[in-house]
Write a structure and sequence with these properties.
This protein has 8 helices and 11 strands. By secondary structure, the protein is an alpha+beta fold. It has 3 domains: 92 residues, no CATH class; 161 residues, Alpha-Beta Plaits (2-Layer Sandwich), CATH 3.30.70; 66 residues, 2-Layer Sandwich (Double Stranded RNA Binding Domain), CATH 3.30.160. Helix 1 packs across helix 2 and helix 2 runs antiparallel to helix 3.
Length: 351
C-alpha cells in the first residue's frame, strides 16, 4: 500500500507548481519550474485517477445500504474492484525514481570482439539493426566515425541518435552481443561463434561536464580508412585526448571546425557516462546483475542463425524471429527489459 501522506505531498507540490506558472509571480526560474511540472504531471494524474477510483469504490459500497441503489452498486462493484490492482500498479510505476538521462539523445558505439572478419561483419549487422529501429521510431542517426573492413564489416562505428526518449529505449543494448552462424567465407559449413561490443551513452549537456582546456590535447590529422563518404583527403580529422582519463575521441567529417565540435561532444558524453557509472557503483555493489547497468563486459544476448532465435540472457527471453529482430524489430525485447528493470526498482523500494 502506498502511504497517503506521500501522495498528498506530491499533489500539493504539483498544485503549487501549477499556480506558480499560472500567475508568474514565483522568483524561481520559470524553466526549472516548467521542467519539474512536466515531470510531475503524469505522476499527479495517476494519483488523481487512483484516488477517484477509491472514491467511486467507497461510494458504491455505501450504496449497498440503500435498497433503491443496491442493484446498481452490485453491478458496479466487481468492475471497480477489478480495476484497483491495475491502478495501483500504474501508480507504483509512476512513482519509481526516474533516470534523468532517459529523455536524452544517445551516442552508440559498436566494436567487433572475438571472431576476426566475422565479428566485424556482425558489428555491421548490429549497426543496420539499430538504424532500422531508429528509423521505425522516427529518430535521426548521424554517423560520427566509421572504420570499415575490406569485406564490408566494421572495425569501429560511433553514431549520434537523436529523437524522443532515445536513451530510455536504447540503454539496455550495452554489453557483449554474441552471434552463432556459418560465415560466408566458411567452406566446410561449420558454425562459428563471434562477438561485438555495444555501448550506449546518454548525450551529455554542457551543465553535466566541464572540461579544463589544460586537460585535453587536440591533434589534426589526415583522414584515412577503407574509403567511402566518411573519408577524405584533407587534413580535417580531429583527435582529442583527455589527459586525466586517457580517453581518445576522433571525428573525420569534412569540416575541421565541425570535427572539433563533434569530438568534444563525444568526449563530454563519455566523461558523463564515467561519472554515471561511478555513482551506480556506489549505489549498488552488484551492478553486473542489474538489467541496463551498462556493464560492457557482460554477455547480454545471443543471435543464433541456424535456429533462427535471439536470446537475451539477462531475462531469459528467447524469440524465434531472428530475421525480424535484425530488421529492427526490437520493441518486444526492450519492453521486456524495461518491465524487468521496473520490477527490480519496485522490489528495492519495498525493501
Amino acid at each position: 500500500m502506498i502511504p497517503n501522506e506521500r501522495l498528498e505531498q506530491i499533489l500539493q507540490r504539483f498544485q503549487y507548481l501549477e499556480a506558480a506558472m499560472a500567475d508568474g509571480s514565483s522568483t524561481e526560474d520559470i524553466a526549472t519550474l516548467a521542467k519539474e511540472y512536466s515531470d510531475l504531471r503524469p505522476v499527479a494524474e495517476q494519483i488523481m485517477a487512483y484516488r477517484q477510483l477509491n472514491a467511486d469504490l467507497a461510494e458504491a459500497e455505501a450504496m449497498l445500504d440503500d435498497p433503491d441503489m443496491r442493484e446498481l452498486a452490485e453491478e458496479e462493484l466487481p468492475t471497480l474492484k477489478a480495476a484497483l490492482p491495475d491502478a495501483e500498479h500504474a501508480l507504483q510505476l509512476a512513482l519509481l525514481p526516474k533516470d534523468e538521462a532517459d529523455a536524452r539523445p544517445a551516442i552508440l558505439e559498436i566494436r567487433p570482439g572475438t571472431g576476426g572478419d566475422e565479428a566485424a561483419l556482425f558489428a555491421g549487422d548490429l549497426l543496420r539493426m539499430y538504424m532500422r529501429y531508429a528509423e521505425a521510431r522516427g529518430w535521426r542517426v548521424e554517423i560520427i566515425e566509421e572504420q570499415a573492413t575490406e569485406l564490408g564489416g566494421i572495425k569501429e562505428v560511433v553514431a549520434h541518435i537523436k529523437g524522443e526518449n532515445v536513451f530510455a529505449r536504447m540503454k539496455y543494448e550495452s554489453g557483449v552481443h554474441r552471434v552463432q552462424r556459418v560465415p560466408a567465407t566458411e567452406s566446410g559449413g561449420r558454425i562459428h561463434t563471434s562477438a561485438a561490443t555495444v555501448a550506449v551513452l546518454p548525450e551529455a549537456e554542457d551543465v553535466d561536464v566541464e572540461i579544463n582546456a589544460a586537460d585535453i590535447r587536440i591533434d589534426t590529422m589526415r583522414a584515412s580508412g577503407a574509403g567511402g563518404q566518411h573519408v577524405n583527403t584533407t587534413d580535417s580529422a580531429v583527435r582529442i585526448t583527455h589527459l586525466p582519463t586517457g580517453l581518445i575521441v576522433t571525428s573525420s567529417e569534412k569540416s575541421q571546425h565541425r570535427n572539433r565540435e563533434i569530438a568534444m561532444q563525444v568526449l563530454k558524453t563519455r566523461l558523463y557516462d564515467l561519472e554515471r557509472q561511478r555513482i551506480d557503483n556506489e549505489r549498488s555493489a552488484d551492478r553486473a546483475s542489474q538489467v541496463g547497468s551498462g556493464d560492457r563486459s557482460e554477455r547480454i544476448r545471443t543471435y543464433n542463425f541456424p535456429q533462427g532465435r535471439m536470446t537475451d540472457h539477462r531475462i531469459n527471453l528467447t524469440l524465434y524471429k531472428l530475421d525480424q529482430v535484425l530488421q529492427g524489430d526490437l520493441d518486444e525485447t526492450v519492453d521486456a527489459l524495461t518491465a524487468d528493470a521496473q520490477s527490480r526498482l519496485m522490489a528495492e523500494m519495498e525493501q
